[in-house]
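Ticket #4471: structure output looks truncated?

Reporter: J.K.
Steps to reproduce: submitted the chain below (203 residues) through the standard prediction queue, then opened the result file.
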Amino acid sequence: MKLYYSPTSPYVRKVMMVLHHTGQIDRVALVDTAGTPLAPASNLLAKNPLTKVPALERPDGPTLFDSRVICAYLDAAGEGGLYPQGDSRWDVLTLEALADGILDAALAMTYEARLRPEDKQWPEWVDGQWDKIARACTAVNERWMSHLAGPLDMGQIALACALGYVDFRHGARNWRAGNEALADWYTGFESRADFAATAPPAG
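Returned output as attached by the reporter:
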């Protein structure tokens, strides 16, 4: 299999953590893929018309894209147990969706600062994206800590990757303020070997 990836993408980091967790990291060749909405990656056009990473090229089927689809596929292939059956499955999927919402907002903030001309940037819109992140962190801190104390699942991985990206690109905004329980959980998660192994390079 081939994984089209960028080492700084938090969506890729989710996939890489699943590969580590399920022992499949050596089965995948990494294809460095750089692009932005303004300059799509040419080597990805034929694999994913959205030209987004991650994308997983398989020998026995069409290329998979969207990190949630890829993570579910790899978890099933590797029998990782990150998506439990029964009622708890919906909790995991909901937490994963919330984490991806944090990522979507944080990435939108990044693109606004990096791709939009300075005189056309909209600070109020950026603050609105941050408000989504802040509300999500508060909700997790107030309602999800008992779930986070349970066995590792895909919701936890997605949340850790989301918070890691917020630290990486928007650390000055300090999502930890008022979310001490969540901050303590994240500190513990940072000690995981698979989380450390998938950290983005500085810069």
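Triage note (M.O.): checked the attachment and the full token line is present. Strands lie at 2-5, 29-32, 55-58, 61-65.
Status: closed, working as intended.
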